[in-house]
UniProtKB/TrEMBL annotation:
Lineage: superkingdom: Eukaryota
Segments passing through the bilayer: none
Signal peptide: 1-18
Protein name per Swiss-Prot or TrEMBL: Alpha/Beta hydrolase protein
Keyword tags: Signal
Amino acid sequence: MRLAASLVVLSLAFYASARSHHFAAAHHIRRDMPMPDVSGYSVQPNSLGDADNGYAGFPNVSNAQTILNFPLKSAEGATIPMYISAGKDNKNITRAVIVPPGKLRDNWYYFWVMDKALYQAAETYEDVDYNAISIMAPALLNPKDITAGAGDNTTLIFNGTTWMSGHYSSGPGSFTNISSYDVVDDLLDYYLDKDEFPNLDKVVIAGHSAGAQFGQRYAALRKSSKHNARIAFWLANPGSLLWLTADRPLPNSTCENVDRWKYGLTDGLPGYGTYAYNHYGRDGIVERYNSHNIHYAWGTADDGPGDTRCQAKTQGLTHYERGLNFVNMIKDISGGSVPDNATVDWVEGVSHDGEGMTRSEAGMTRLFRNATYQRRFGNDNGASASWEPAHGLLLGAAAALVSALCVL
Ligand SMILES: *[C@@H]1O[C@H](CO)[C@@H](O)[C@H](O)[C@H]1NC(C)=O
Ligand SMILES: *[C@@H]1O[C@H](CO)[C@@H](O)[C@H](O)[C@H]1NC(C)=O
Ligand SMILES: *[C@@H]1O[C@H](CO)[C@@H](O)[C@H](O)[C@H]1NC(C)=O
Ligand SMILES: *[C@@H]1O[C@H](CO)[C@@H](O)[C@H](O)[C@H]1NC(C)=O
Ligand SMILES: *[C@@H]1O[C@H](CO)[C@@H](O)[C@H](O)[C@H]1NC(C)=O
Ligand SMILES: *[C@@H]1O[C@H](CO)[C@@H](O)[C@H](O)[C@H]1NC(C)=O
Ligand SMILES: *[C@@H]1O[C@H](CO)[C@@H](O)[C@H](O)[C@H]1NC(C)=O
Ligand SMILES: *[C@@H]1O[C@H](CO)[C@@H](O)[C@H](O)[C@H]1NC(C)=O
């Protein structure tokens, strides 16, 4: 009873915050299109099992279809589990957002976060249509998840967190040469196929934290293709970065392998990238990386240490500091400003919080509005901007209220 009451409170708070804000566009919301059930956002989905002992399955998530065995083209006979937006018409889709999981392989949580941000964006901006954007949240599982019950004998599996930096799968069976980045290639191809999605313009690979690490390193190794202009990356608060130069802002002469993959480009690249590295070298990889549409985002309050290995510490001591240092480095090697196809958003007051980042004005804009339009919000070189969190604080307060009510 109390739980039900608190859900109503959150739903009302969510509506109130979404509707009462002073965004001009908020007054011109289309009422004719189906919108999701807001109460679906009030409680985040619960994991079945845990990351350490293995997951037993996938919880149902509002507005998502659970696909347990999405077939892979790069590994015929193997599959991955995912959530994908339910109840949408492929012909109506103009944008897709692929959101990798966090370190905990928790794709249910990230679907929920992204869908909630999309809902808020659709309520806020006239040009964002909830029904025109498809969200996909894949997971790359561990062997222990198969034992615990989340996958079957076709599920592609990766040891530990090796999926985060593009390494090869460890099974099932002989599927030991499939990079987690081959999987992303497949997922992009799925959406970029004009026969399936005739009106789809852009796909955004949108990662927070571990998901941002995954996406950033993929951007460096993905081959350039005719599809480049249709793909964008949104990389928020990565725990560490693939550094593009060999030097570091906080050098540590006793720390080994500071510039080895996944921290750098001297050596240790995964099989997915060795051909490119051997042929084009560091400069070729960096050029390829910077040719992609990349939207970086850091919360200015993200002062957590993230990755505490010595290699990561040479990049900065907190997520935010690594961001500042990375942006300086990338400007240094790009003639003084960030590359033409990159943008940088500093999201004021947000910490290591995927919900705060996706629901900030900058987050909603990059994710759901003009993901590949550049130089629109500029200051010094047209590519950096500071943003206030939009409804995040109010929603945060509502969520806190609900948590408080739930424990009563
Ligand atoms: C998800 O919902 C379906 C249909 O209601 C139900 O059959 C299934 O057991 C649910 N799965 C979980 C993991 O709760
Ligand atoms: C797809 O778009 C058409 C035309 O705007 C609309 O009538 C229909 O409801 C949409 N379908 C879905 C599932 O959003
Ligand atoms: C996977 O399991 C199915 C039945 O659950 C079985 O028919 C099939 O042979 C198995 N495949 C492999 C490669 O073990
Ligand atoms: C995964 O771990 C197993 C057991 O530790 C090991 O034999 C295998 O080589 C590892 N595979 C990869 C791709 O790292
Ligand atoms: C994996 O190895 C098989 C057998 O050698 C090969 O046919 C396949 O192309 C490889 N896959 C990838 C993604 O490298
Ligand atoms: C430098 O690296 C060494 C070796 O890992 C480590 O013990 C030390 O704490 C590092 N120093 C700093 C300032 O991070
Ligand atoms: C930026 O992206 C566009 C579209 O993909 C591409 O044509 C252009 O070459 C890219 N710019 C750089 C500097 O690579
Ligand atoms: C998005 O792009 C359209 C078309 O170029 C433009 O009119 C609009 O102002 C852009 N919106 C934002 C938020 O950049």
